[in-house]
Amino acid sequence: MSRSLVEDVNALADSVTYTITNANLYISPNYGGGGNLGFSMMGNGITLIGDGGTDPSFFDGSNGYLPGSPGGGGTTLFLWDVNSAKIGSTTYGFGDIQLNCCSAGLGTLGFTFPTNGKDFTIVLPAGISLVSGTIVPADQSFSLIFTPGRLTMSFYFAPDGRYYPSQATFVSAPEPGALGLMATGVAAMMGVLGRKLIIRSA
Questions:
Q1: Residue 11 located in a structural domain
Q2: Residue range of the domain that includes 69
Q3: Considering the domain boundaries, does residue 145 fall inside one?
Q4: Is 8 part of any domain?
Q5: Is the CB of residue 151 less than 8 Å from the CB of residue 58?
Q6: Does residue 160 lie in a domain region?
Q7: Neighbouring residues of 151: CB distance < 8 A, sequence distance ≥ 6
Q8: What is the 3-state secondary structure (H, E, C) of 107-158?
């Protein structure tokens, strides 16, 4: 076995996997330059806070969307910077944690923009794909696995006849056992996640 292959195998064996049970994404309209994403990710033994962006066509604030056109479907998450982090008992600053900026994706269902010319909000079940990264001071690789959740997106209808985004959030669906939810609360949560889409006209 070559030295490089041995090193790759050893690196894989040394990688640590964390399950993120509480992820929050804050998405603003994308005007083509990115920088429209803030995030916080928390799980057992790990907390990450940072920023990044989405694909230019996702939540497009420049061109908007015509009534009856398709929307949603997900986007690549460009997780550029981890501004602060705590892993185990160690606190890290800016630049200490590097995420593979293009390894993540936000997946969700597609939908069709309404034709009634009214502002609306839509809620979709969504999930974040596997994210990999490195703890730079420790030269330690790790992976993040995410609990599924829901994506909420709001749009307004403009005088030019197009829909434009105002804000969007992704929130992990909390684990009932971890939060001690009542059975009725669990049923309500699963009911929301089970719907393909919910449109609330303003």
A1: no
A2: 16-201
A3: yes
A4: no
A5: no
A6: yes
A7: 72, 106, 108, 123, 124, 125, 126, 168, 169, 170
A8: EECEEECCCCCCCEEEEEEEEECCEEEEEHHHCEEEEEEECCEEEEEEEEEC
Residue-wise pLDDT tens digits, 50-62? 999 998 888 999 9
> What token pair was written down for 16?
């640590």
Q: Which residue in the block uniquely carries the two structure tokens 């992820």?
A: 23
197: pLDDT confidence band, cut at 50, 70 and 90? very low
Which single residue is written with the structure tokens 């994210």?
131
Note the pLDDT tens digit of each residue in 48-105: 999 999 988 889 999 999 999 999 888 999 988 999 999 999 999 999 999 987 778 9
What's the pTM value of the predicted model, to 2 decimals?
Answer: 0.77
The domain total for the chain is 1
Query: Tokens 């982090």 correspond to what residue?
Result: 85
Cα–chain center distance at 176: 21
Which residue's structure tokens are 């209808």? 157
